[in-house]
Amino acid sequence: MEWILLLFLGLIAAILGSIMGLGGGIIIVPAMMVLAGYSAILEGITPQVAVGTSLVVMIFTGLSSTLAYVKQKKVDIKSGLIFFAGSGPGALFGVWLNKDIDVSAFLIFFGGFIILVSFILMVRKYVKPIRLAKTGGVRRTYINPAGDLIEYGYQPAVGIAIAFVVGMCSGLFGIGGGSLMVPAMLLLFGFPAHIAVATSMFLVFLSALVSSVTHVALGNVDWLYAAALIPGAWFGGIIGAAVNRRLKGDTVVNFLRLFLILIGIRLIYQGVTGM
């Protein structure tokens, strides 16, 4: 029954992560840490193993989502590669930070981070994008389904610097970085929502690939957990991309914000009290 629960967890995390461009790790890691207190098979799991296993799973979520979004012609591949120039080294730095962190500190900081992400998701549509590439830099155009021409852009140096922080969070928390990169692309660079999500999943795939290799070398991956999570993650990534194409994300965003707040509070409580 518990292995079926992990399969279902991988599916749901990937669907929500693919819809929002978050990667799914932001759901998998806290869920595994919370379930560790109630499940015999997850008992004693460390933050390092939860993060390392999550990153391996996100390779498959990111790849399946990216392939689906490429077919929809929504992935800005050039921008994704530019951002990866920052997120790749950032991911390795995050893995280095992760190796010595203790359980209580991890739970408290991760819980606070998740609540911060929920706040970013809450205010993002009320903030007018800051155009950072009015002169020079990378500029892009996109015609949305309504036929409107949308311009967006950024300075590569700024994008790489932000992506470094995103990659660091990916390696440290095992979340893929999309929870920060999507708001950054929307708020700072004026990306259309669908392009931001699709490009974020491409970046999630690349960052998870780099981070997971290091975690595998450090022995931070439980392959049994990964094997249970990966099938759901693969199909969830495809399903999430299909849902993103057809539906507005407001209902999903509201549900995800509430979910993140509850999980964040639960993790902070567990970190402070040890319960």
Mean pLDDT rating: 80
Which term fits the overall shape? Answer: globular
Strand content: under 5%
The oligomeric status of these chains comes to: single chain
Residue runs with pLDDT of under 50 for 5 or more positions: none
Approximately how much helix is present in the residues? over 70%
Task: Spell out the helices and strands N to C.
Answer: HHHHHEEHHHHH
Gap between N and C termini, in Å? Answer: 24 Å
Count of helix runs: 10
Trace the largest sheet across and list its strands. Answer: 1-2
Number of strands: 2
Overall number of structural domains: 1
Radius of gyration: 17 Å
Keywords: Cell membrane, Membrane, Transmembrane, Transmembrane helix
Protein name: Probable membrane transporter protein
Pfam families: TauE (PF01925)
Membrane topology: Multi-pass membrane protein
